[in-house]
Amino acid sequence: MEGSLSEMEGILDSRLFYKISKQYIVNLRVISKYQDEKVTIQGTELKVSVRRKKDFEKAYQMFQIKYS
Predict the structure, then answer these.
(1) Is the pTM of this model over 0.90?
(2) Which of the four, 1, 18, 31, 38, has the lowest number of CB atoms within 10 Å?
(3) Using CA atoms, how far apart are residues 57 and 35, in angstroms rounded to an integer?
(4) Do residues 46 and 38 lie in contact, with contact meaning Cβ atoms separated by under 8 Å?
(5) CA–CA distance, 37 with 66 (Å, rounded to integer)
(6) φ and ψ at residue 3, rounded to 5 degrees
(7) Residue 3 in 3-state DSSP?
């Protein structure tokens, strides 16, 4: 699928996907770990931007409550 991350962000379900930085949108279901401002997905660490950290943490907590 081609398009900007902003376009993708508008299409994807915000309950399951979150834009953690200018470069990445992540599927909250596949995050295996979140620690020290980094998410781990399949062994790869991705940094959550400082600007998005607080909102990401809220969204991730809500996701964990709803889907755990």
Answers:
(1) no
(2) 1
(3) 10
(4) yes
(5) 22
(6) 145, 170
(7) coil
